[in-house]
Amino acid sequence: xxxxxxxxxxKGKLGILIPGVGAVATTFIAGVEAIKNNYARPxxxxxxxxxxxxxxxxxxRTPLIKDFVPLASLSDLVFGGWDINNETCYETAVRSGVLxxxxxxxxxxxxxxxxxxxxxxxxxxxKRLEGTHLKKGKNKYELALQVIEDIKNFKSENNLDxxxxxxxxxxxxYLQPSEVxxxxxxxxxxxxxxxxxxxxxxxxAYAALSLGIPYANGAPNLSVDFPAMVELAQRKHAxxxxxxxxxxxxxxxxxxxxxxxxxxIGLSGWFSTNILGNRxxxxxxxxxxxxxxxxxxxxxxxxxxxxxxxxxxxKDYHHxxxxxxxxxxxxxxxxxxNIDIFGWLGYPxxxxxxxxxxxxxxxxxxxxxxxLFLDLAQRTRMYGIQEWLSFYFKSPQCAxxxxxxHDxxxxxxxxxxxxxxxxxxxxxxxxxxxxxx
Length: 437
Prior knowledge:
It is a single chain. By secondary structure, the chain is α/β, with parallel strands linked by helices. It folds into 2 domains: 14-245 and 360-422, 3-Layer(aba) Sandwich (Rossmann fold), CATH 3.40.50; 249-356, 2-Layer Sandwich (Dihydrodipicolinate Reductase, domain 2). Helix content is 38%, strand content 15%. The chain starts with 13 loop residues before the first strand and ends in a 15-residue tail after the last helix. The mean pLDDT is 96.
């Protein structure tokens, strides 16, 4: 095995830039502040609680991931962001109703210090939301320059050493890559011409990458998943990853589907429906934003089950996904799955899943892991698409010639083997024949 890769130490403060300071972002920020003060534990966070096996099973080396690779300390994180509402983080957290008031009161001073900057936003791309706290500019390029100025001021005022941006904003309308997305030159020309194919999330991504800042896309928007942004990320030495946080129903699919496939259990149909009542649910109550989310959710099963290789088992299965806005549920979304399967000699069986989950509670630890791992990637000189972070996404971004891996267990193995590789440790294949020689 090689000696490992040189990784710069995480010296100084790490600024976390968040477009969309809503329920997910405030749950993330409040959670980090609570954990820093020992008010709560970082359950769900691989970087904080996960371990990694090193070497043979007989060696019994299983350190915490945060002790194995040099990650930024939570005490060095500084938060800033943009939102269409002019509220402090504390006010937004209270309004979102995700966290108990008792916990919010304990971190209130930290949350009240964070008031988002005016946002880049157009109702053309998120039709169900209206904002009053918005930037104005003669074109999209000027808006990008304003975001860049916000970032520079934030870094200077807080004496920050490094920065990471993570999109926690709403799902935008469905778009496919077009000519303006095909190269950086055409994209920058499109910014100046106010091309309608350039959305708000792309403007934030462009601003971040122009400054060499890593970018993670937590929504199913295109954002950085097209050639112009990949080109910019490589040119400016910035890691990128996305898209769409894998939290609730899709997380369960990427756990269950690999199990069915491993036992060659056939699938006749998979019906999924969701109810949720937060801002995400309100946004997805609009058909064009809903299509963006549905495309993200529907892409998972085919890649895992590979119907082209197993036509008798998976070629003609019926897959439906429904998302329903139901305000009384708030952030506590519920997913129902009916899975019709068949086994030996074609005999039918069923699986029923009822997942009552908390959207922002599942997303917050992903935000933490992603900003810390992206910062690690940049200090390791890993630029462009970070496929090893697929573990966190519904629609993982990967090289154009590759299909994305959706199987949660393959994704986790890829992530941990990447960390082993960086530190010069043997990759784990689980072959294990050496124990029986």
